[in-house]
Amino acid sequence: MSRARCRLLTAVIAVMAALALTLAFLGGAPTGVVKVSALAITIVSLSRLTIFLVPLIALLLSYDAIVGEVERGAMATLLAYPVARWQVIAGTFLGQLGILGLATVLGYSAAGLALQWAGNDDLKAWDAFAIMIASSILLGAVFIAIGFFVSSLVRDRGAAGGIASGIWLPFVLLYDMALLGVLVADAGRTVTADTLNALLLLLLNPPDAYRLLNLSASPDIGGLAGVTGLGANTGLGPATLVAALAAWVVAPLTAATAVFARRQL
User: Fold this and answer.
1) Dist. CA 139–CA 246, nearest whole Å
2) pLDDT tens across 27-71, in order?
3) For the segment 201-211, what is each residue's pLDDT rounded down to a tens digit?
4) Residue 212 in contact with residue 236, Cβ under 8 Å?
C-alpha cells in the first residue's frame, strides 16, 4: 500500500472511531429513561451518521479511480501488462472497498468494545451491531461503484469531483425530502400504501434501504428510531433490502466496466 493510501486509511479510521466513540458515550445518556442499552442507542446514532459519512468517504475515494490514473499516465503503463481492463476495475474496486471496510470495522468496533468495557453492553444488540457494520460496508460499496461509473465517463478529475459531490446531495438528502413532499401534498388521495410500496421497490434509494435494514433490525432499535414494524409494513424484508443494495453495486460497476472497455487512453 502506498504512503498516500496509508495516510488516507489512518485518517478515515481516526475520524470514524472518534465520531463513533463520541456518539457511544454522549448518546448513551438517555438509557436510564428509555430503558434500553447504550449499544442499541449507539446503533441508531451510528446508522444515521453512516448515511451521511460513508457515501461521502466512498465518493472521495473513488471519483478519480479511473480518470485520475489516466491523467497521471499510470493507466497506460498498467495496461501495457497482460491484464484485462475489467480486472483493473475489479482490483481497484476491491482495494478501495478494503480500505473503507477496514476503516468501518475498526472505527465502529472501537465504540462497541468501549461500551462493553464500560459495562454498558447488551448481548442481544450485538447481532444488530454486526448487521450495521456489514451493511455500512455494503452501502460504501454502492457509492464506490457509483464513483467508478462517474470516473469512467469524464475526461477530467475536476469534473469527476464536481459530479461526485453533486451525486451525494440527492441520494442522501433530496430523495427523502422530495418523497416526503409528495406524500404530504397528496394527503393520501392518490399515493396509497400499495403505491408507496411499488415506488420504494422500483426507485429504492440506497441510504433508505440501509436505514430500513438497520433501524428495523430489532424492536428496541426500531422503537428508538420510531420505525418499529416499518420494514414489515412496506413489504420490504431484509432479503429484499440487501438485494437492492447489491443491485446498486453491480449495476454502476458493470456500466463502468463497459464504458472503460471502449475508452481511448
Assistant:
1) 9
2) 554 444 445 566 777 787 888 889 988 999 999 889 989 998 998
3) 555 788 888 88
4) yes
Contact present, 248 and 206 (Cβ < 8 Å): yes
Per-domain residue ranges for the chain?
3-261
pTM above 0.70, yes or no: yes
Any residues with CB less than 8 A from the CB of 261 and at least 6 apart, and which? 85, 86
Grid coordinates representing 154? Answer: 469524464
The residue type at 67: V
Burial 152-188 (b: 16+ CB within 10 A, else e): bbbeebeebbebbeebbeebbeebbeebeeeeeeeee
C-alpha cell at position 199: 415506488
Q: Residue 253 and residue 147: Cα distance in Å, rounded?
A: 9
Cβ neighbours, 10 Å, residue 18: 13
